[in-house]
Specification:
The protein is α+β, with helices and mostly antiparallel strands and about 150 residues long. Helices cover about 35% and strands about 35% of the residues. The protein contains four helices and nine strands, in the order E-H-E-H-E-E-E-E-E-H-E-E-H. The longest helix is centred in the last third of the chain and has 25 residues. The radius of gyration is 18 Å and the shape is globular.
Length: about 150
């Protein structure tokens, strides 16, 4: 079940591969995510050393958060992947000019997972072409529905 999607990622990038990662979260963050108070629009994935982090994801604290915790809504969160996946991602990012973007947050067996996309940036004309293709498909579906009636 999807919690939050990053629709802008598919608009701005060609997604080559996708990986599923766990996230290191604090208790108040899990409660806020379950309440739907998360946004991935400005988020991206960075490499520090031999680890991968989610940077810029906004998780809004609930008003019922504990008084002894001072929530930081845009803190950097560590992503959990297998060592081979991390090596592969680091190699692609450093050598091949790829970037990593979060695609969505979802539940898997009661745990919160982050779908990461290995992506190449789109040029402006590519974005326009994608938009045209989407409009064309939408028009074709309308025509098909009218013919069925």
């Amino acid at each position: 079940m999807s919690i939050a999607d990053n629709k802008k990622a598919f608009h701005d990038y060609f997604i080559e591969e996708q990986f599923e990662a766990g996230i290191v979260l604090q208790g108040w963050e899990v409660k806020a995510i379950r309440a739907g108070r998360v946004q991935l629009k400005e988020a991206y994935v960075i490499v520090k050393g031999a680890e991968i982090y989610l940077f810029g994801a906004h998780i809004g604290a609930l008003p019922t958060a504990s008084t002894h915790i001072h929530p930081d809504s845009v803190r950097t969160r560590k992503l959990l992947l297998h060592a081979e996946e991390i090596k592969k991602l680091i190699g692609k990012v450093e050598r091949s000019g790829y970037t990593m973007v979060p695609l969505n947050l979802h539940f898997l067996n009661g745990r919160i997972k982050c779908q990461i996309g290995l992506a190449k940036g789109k040029k402006q004309h590519d974005k326009r072409e994608t938009e045209k293709e989407r409009d064309w498909q939408r028009e074709q579906q309308k025509i098909m529905k009218q013919h069925r009636r």
